[in-house]
Write a structure and sequence with these properties.
single chain, about 270 residues, Rossmann fold, seven-stranded parallel β-sheet, 7 helices, about 30% helix, about 15% strand, serine protease, Alkaline serine protease
């Protein structure tokens, strides 16, 4: 799957980085409870009339696999297989949701001391209430990562909220030639890029499938951030964010590519 073919090692002879000791809250459609390739630390649903965080769509499970699928010779291995995954269901089976539901998920993630929150979701409406929730989480030291949006075919700035907010890292999608995916949103808030076209990962009902979008790219960045945090638990969210940007490989126009492609080995070199 291209994501986990490189072992990320601290030093020669030291065990590879796997995200151990870090935690990620995935605010999405839930995660498949029964998937043999995905371990869930804890979960909750904030979707009306849905009491279970089990994934009834597939999207959230796909992201969970990209970040943390187990290293077990099954299907695929995530970027950070030992990170703790929190399944925070804020989107319904059609992957629709409300800002207010997402905010409940953010508050839960703060309470559970998640290191990173992934929001592969987007709305067009600006909201002070929504932004304040992001700022609160960011001030608590949580790294916030969101998909930039899948409206890159539009003219002008097509980045959606929450990715557009200052407190949130906006991530765009690359294809396997390191070109911006046609749908990947453009705009000055774009920070970094990661693979997001035809990504093989876990799906609900114990399945696997290919999917594309800035959602998948954002999940990849979350996995890399987990590795950097494991490497140095003293790093702040701001420092991890800066390191991800500084170590990215430039690919072209910042409005289309931000700082470029996330690169964990370069990040670890710069860090040293």
């Amino acid at each position: 799957n291209g994501m986990s073919n490189v072992l990320h090692t601290k030093e020669k002879g030291v065990s590879p980085l796997t995200g151990k000791g870090t935690s990620v809250a995935i605010l999405d459609t839930g995660i498949d409870r029964e998937h043999p390739d995905v371990k869930i630390k804890e979960g909750i649903s904030f979707v009306e009339n849905v009491s279970d965080f089990d994934d009834d769509n597939g999207h959230g499970t796909h992201l969970a696999g990209i970040i943390g699928a187990q290293k077990n010779n099954m299907g695929m291995t995530g970027v950070a297989p030992d990170t703790d995954l929190y399944a925070v269901k804020v989107l319904d089976k059609y992957a629709n949701g409300k800002y207010s539901t997402v905010v409940k998920g953010i508050d839960w993630a703060i309470e559970h001391k998640a290191n990173i929150i992934l929001m592969s979701l987007g709305g067009k409406k600006e909201s002070v209430f929504f932004e304040e929730a992001m700022n609160k989480a960011y001030e608590k030291g949580i790294l916030l990562v969101a998909s930039a949006g899948n409206e890159g075919y539009k003219e002008g700035n097509s980045i959606t909220y929450p990715a557009k907010f200052d407190a949130v890292m906006a991530v765009g999608a690359l294809d396997n030639k390191n070109q911006r995916g046609f749908l990947s949103s453009k705009g000055e808030q774009l920070e970094v890029m990661a693979p997001g076209v035809d990504i093989w990962s876990t799906w609900n009902n114990g399945d696997y499938r290919l999917d594309s979008g800035t959602s998948m790219a954002a999940a990849h960045v979350v996995g890399v951030a987990s590795l950097l945090l494991e490497n140095d638990r003293m790093m702040s969210n701001q420092q991890v964010r800066e390191l991800l940007k500084k170590s990215a490989k430039p690919l072209g126009n910042p409005l289309e590519y931000g700082n470029g492609k996330v690169n964990v080995s370069r990040a670890l070199q710069i860090y040293r």
